[in-house]
Amino acid sequence: MRTPVRSAAALATTLVATLVCLAVPASAGPIAEGGPVGGPNGVDQGDFQMPFPCGQVWGASTHADHPAVDWNGVGPAAGDRDEGLPVLAGLGGTVLEVGPHRGYGDRVVVDHGDGWASLYAHLSAITVEVGERVTAATQVGNVGNTGSSGGPHLHWEQRYLGQPVPVLWAAGAPITTTYGSPGPTYTSQNCPPRAFGVSFVPAPRGAAPGPTSAKR
């Protein structure tokens, strides 16, 4: 039996369809829990730090079907006393969006590259502009109660390929949340020298300590 010869047009159609399928990232579908999720060029969830200054303690809560962490102050910053506290980027990148947006209220979106972005919502003030380059320690705004919010807190999302991931990470570990405020507490490790891209090593005897390059 002779094998039919496919026409040039049919072969071209098949080739185009194959290329279109290959162009769609395999991770473009729903992101499963687990992690960390990795980008193709080195940025992954293990690079994120908490979006607060070094040493501050915050509680992590959330809601059902709510792929985000709602950060609430604890101790001296409990209740309404966390309103106005600084919000940091947590990872270097470029500011993509600022301003009010639906229930988020005043929000900032930072593009970290390799498919990663962060969203910071319900802010009382925004301290960056679109196109601005930021480091992990750059202040992007202040904790607030704008939009659909029942009290001052920071709504924080990590997004990969445009989708909020179900489990957020900070300081190299997943963040555990509860459905009640303030939730499990975490201490920010968003500290120099990590925040500024350098790390310090013990100096040889008789020499002064100096910086060495480190991953941002």
Question: How would you describe what is shown here?
Answer:
A hairpin with a 7-residue loop joins strand 1 and strand 2 (69-73). The protein has a domain at 45-195: Glucose Permease (Domain IIA) (Distorted Sandwich). It has one helix spanning 8-23; strands at 57-61, 69-73, 86-88, 93-100, 106-113, 116-121, 125-126, 133-134, 139-142, 154-160, 163-164, 169-170, 173-174, 185-187, 198-200, 211-213. The protein contains 1 helix and 16 strands. Strands 1, 2, 4, 5, 6, 8, 10, 11 and 14 form a 9-stranded antiparallel sheet that branches. Helices cover 7% and strands 30% of the residues. With 216 residues, the protein is mainly beta. The termini are far apart. The protein is globular.
Which features would summarize this protein structure in a list?
Glucose Permease (Domain IIA), mainly beta, 1 helix, 30% strand, 9-stranded antiparallel sheet, disordered C terminus, disordered N terminus, 216 residues
In short:
The protein is 7% helix and 30% strand.
CATH fold name of the domain at 45-195:
Glucose Permease (Domain IIA)
**Largest sheet descriptor:** 9 strands, antiparallel
CATH homology superfamily name of the domain at 45-195? Glucose Permease (Domain IIA)
Nearest-integer average pLDDT: 79
Query: Which class do the helix and strand fractions yield?
Result: mainly beta
Could you state the order of secondary-structure elements as H and E?
HEEEEEEEEEEEEEEEE
Distance between the termini: 64 Å
- What proportion strand? 25-35%
The total count of strands amounts to 16
| CATH class placement of the domain at 45-195 | Mainly Beta
